[in-house]
């Protein structure tokens, strides 16, 4: 079964983007939101496509946060 998911940012997330929060911290928050959303829908295992970008920095932070909140890659 393949499910493609996307998230929308809330006004709280938009405010965070414009404040002085570091990009890695925002990526961690996105990973957390994605994990919670997936788990609410019963999705526990996902495939992570980094889209050709190196696996470090923000991408690594997003994936680590999603794993910490229960998603399996």
TrEMBL record:
UniProt superkingdom: Eukaryota
Keyword list, A-Z: Ribonucleoprotein, Ribosomal protein
GO CC annotations, alphabetized: cytoplasm; ribonucleoprotein complex; ribosome
Molecular functions per Gene Ontology: 5S rRNA binding; structural constituent of ribosome
Coiled-coil portions: none
InterPro entries xref list: Ribosomal_L18, Ribosomal_uL18_bac/plant/anim
GO biological process, one term: translation
Family designation: Belongs to the universal ribosomal protein uL18 family.
Protein name: 50S ribosomal protein L18
């Amino acid at each position: 079964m393949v499910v493609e998911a996307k998230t929308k940012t809330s006004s709280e997330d938009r405010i965070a983007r414009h404040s002085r929060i570091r990009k890695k911290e925002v990526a961690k928050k996105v990973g957390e939101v994605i994990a919670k959303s997936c788990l609410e829908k019963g999705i526990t295992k996902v495939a992570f496509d980094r889209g050709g970008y190196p696996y470090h920095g923000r991408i690594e932070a997003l994936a680590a946060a999603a794993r910490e909140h229960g998603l399996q890659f």
